Each structure stands twice: as structure tokens, then as C-alpha cells.
Amino acid sequence: MSSGGEADGAAGGAGDGASGGAGDGAAGGGTDSAGTVSSARLEETRRTVDAVWRIESGKLIAVLARLVGDVGVAEELAQDSLVAALEQWPRTGVPRNAGAWLTAVAKRRAIDGWRRQERLGDRYAQLAHDLETELGADDPARAVEETIDDDLLRLVFISCHPVLTKPSRVALTLKLLGGLTTEEIARAFLAPVSAIAQRIVRAKRTLTAARVPFEVPDRSEFPARLSSVLEVVYLIFNEGYSATAGDDWMRPALCWEALRLGRVLAELTPREPEVHGLVALMEFQASRLGARTTASGEPVLLQDQDRSRWDRILIQRGVAALARSEKLARGRGPYALQAAIAACHATAPTADATDWEEIVALYSALAELNPSAVIELNRAVALSMAYGPQAALDVVDRLVIDGALAEYHLLPSVRADLLLRLGRNTEARHEFEQAAALTSNQRERTLLLERAAAC
């Protein structure tokens, strides 16, 4: 959640653009008389495979994990089927049901692997028999598409299992459900590839060692486990929305990936109000991505943004998701409350028309549900807009004395803005400089230093 001191695009959601329904058979000119595939055809197929993988990998791994009972093995089998696609599709063309083709190939690799074992246990023998019966015909493309919703939901809960640390949950979720490569995850979080790879390997080993069952949690455990899932998805979104480090103010690809995961989760759990609340929140926030930076990547503050650049389709989707959340719940949960706050911004025609009094009331309700210093800081920003900077400064000064946000750069940033509005420029300059020293994001540091100089 960003405070009022935030500086508020991106291409369509991650995974868009896959060539679904591509015709069977090689396109004309793709091979010569000797069957050699042209370099252009190879490159075209590679792009298609990448797009299909981004869309289908989560479903594929989910189905395989249920069958083999091990996420690590499932991912290896899925990667094998990807290699097979890269080898075969340039010659044969992309099958009409690419997901079913990949699933069928992966299952056959599992059968072959088990049967190559010198001592084949009864369990693997039975699995191999069941899979072969299920596959039936020799042509993988003729495999019947499975119902994967339950499998995908199980994989969501496994990726975000409490036995894993939060960084591990994030990495594993992006790897298994997002279809991102280890290199892409490392680049997104500015971490060494080796560190992310080790984190993912350790996560899979931890799941195996803990014998985490491949199942949706029991009804009594569901709310707590779902809360962990939502937390991971929103953490991914927030890292994209306001990057904690690096040279870029935002990493929109992470926002789109989190939003895609949230939409999938909403389809899988349609009766869960907080899932729709989170989706609404991300739709509203994502609608502003295109206006949050200049063409050169410099941050643009919320009140200075060109609202004609806000994505009205995403705002409409946010309104619909928030309505679904409110219809399902007796009262608004934390994500629905945050979505309602975002809606106040998204639906206001101008910055001056924002209903700040309503935002103050919503933050107060949120603070009752989830008391935290960050929420109180956000409430202070709303207070300043509704009732003046002095009312907000009293709240912020109490937060300074409390010390809970001592290392949080937005605390001095917000305090600086309030002091500036009160005409206390020298103090404001000091606070802006302190905020700049605390942030690890280069774009944000530059903005804060510029504001300090302007004092």
C-alpha cells in the first residue's frame, strides 16, 4: 500500500499474445525439400512456444504434480515437454490444443522414466499403467483436455505454503504459476540468478521433506492459507508498482503477472470476497501505470498525473470486482477496503474532486481491522487533504516518536510534504534529504533530492 507521498504504460497482461488455435502442419515455406527447417521458422516457433509456455505452464505443472506427487518432478517433466515442443513444432506446426499436447508428452516422459528404472515399485507401475490407459492413442495431440481447475488451485496453495519463507513463496509462485524463468525472476527483484535458483531449489526440497500433500486445505485451514496466497500475490504486485531498489521507478511486468494470477485465483475461488477485493485493488492501481512516469521514466506524483491516460477499462473491471466482493461479504475485508480507497482516486474526474473525507473514513475502518503504522501514515496523508496539513502532522509526529517506521523512507517524505505546506521549508528540506538517504530506488532518490533542493 502506497502512501500519499507516492509518485504515481505497460503492455497488456503477461501471457497475452499466444497464437491460440494455430493450424496443424508446417506453414508454407517453413521447410525445404529435404525437411530442413528455416531459421525464420525456428524463431517464429520459439516465440510461439514461449507464449504458450507462459499461459499453459501453471496448468501443466498442476496436473503433473497431482499425478506424480512431487512439484520438483512435475516441473522437470513439464520442461521436458517444452524441449520436445521446440524440437517438433518447427517441423509439424503448432497443435490446435497446445496445452493438451504438452501434457500428453510430459505424461509419456513420466511413463518412460519409471519403466527405465531397474527396480520399478508397485506404485510407479500402477501410475504408469493408469497414465498409459488415459492417454490411449499414440498421437499426443489427440489427448483429451483435462479439467485442471482443482489441480491449479492445489498448486497455488502449495506454492504459497506456510512451511516456506515469504521470499521462497514469491519465487516459487512466479516460477510455477507465472511461467517466468529463473533469470526473469532474478531480474525483476534485482537479485543474482544463482540466489534465486537456490531459493527455488530449497523451496521444492522443503515441500518434499515436509511431505506437503497436493491438496486444497481443509475448510478449517482455508482462510489462513488463502490469506498467505493473497499476501504473496499482492507483494508481487507492489514490487512492480513501486520498485524497492534499482534504477526504475516501476516494473510493470510484475504488476501484470500479479494481476493475471489474481484473476486466475478469482476464477478458481469465485465465492471468496477478499480474492475479488484484491483483484479490484490491483485493477484500480494498474489503471494508473501509464501515467505514473514520464516518457523518460521520471516519477509523476498522483496529483500531477494526466488522468486521461488512466486505463478506463481496468477501472471498470475494478468497479465490477469490488461490487462482487461486497455482494459476497457482510462487510468489507482489508483488501476490499483498500480497493474502495483506490476507487475513490480512480473514479474522481480531477485530483480536486477526490472525496478525501471518505478516504479518511475508509482508512479508519482499515486500521480497526489491521492496525499498523503504515496504515496510520496513509490515513495521515488523507487527513492532510481533507482537514489540512497540521492535523496530519500531529499524527505523523506521533509515528516518529513511536519509532516503528524509523527505516521507512515514506515517513520523512510525508512529513516533509506536510512541513512544506505549512511553510516550514528548512525542516522540509531536511526531511526530504533523510527520505532520499533511506530509499534504495534511484528514481525515487532523485525525485526526493530535487524536492529538497526546491525547498
UniProtKB/TrEMBL annotation:
Q: Which SUPFAM superfamilies match?
A: Sigma2 domain of RNA polymerase sigma factors, Sigma3 and sigma4 domains of RNA polymerase sigma factors
Q: Which family does it belong to?
A: Belongs to the sigma-70 factor family. ECF subfamily.
Bias (Gly residues): 1-32
Which GO terms of type biological process are on file? DNA-templated transcription initiation; response to stress
Can you name the source organism? Leifsonia poae
Q: What are the residue boundaries of the DUF6596 domain, all occurrences included?
A: 225-325
What's the protein called, per UniProt? RNA polymerase sigma factor
User: Which Pfam families does UniProt cross-reference here?
Assistant: DUF6596, Sigma70_r2, Sigma70_r4_2
Keywords for the protein's UniProt record, in alphabetical order: DNA-binding, Sigma factor, Transcription, Transcription regulation
Lineage: superkingdom: Bacteria
InterPro entries per the UniProt record, alphabetical: DUF6596, RNA_pol_sigma70_ECF_CS, RNA_pol_sigma70_r2, RNA_pol_sigma70_r4_t2, RNA_pol_sigma_r2, RNA_pol_sigma_r3/r4-like, WH-like_DNA-bd_sf
Q: Which part of the chain is the RNA polymerase sigma-70 region domain?
A: 59-119
Q: Where is this region: Disordered?
A: 1-41
Q: Which GO terms describe its molecular function?
A: DNA binding; sigma factor activity
Where is each RNA polymerase sigma factor 70 region 4 type domain found? Answer: 158-207
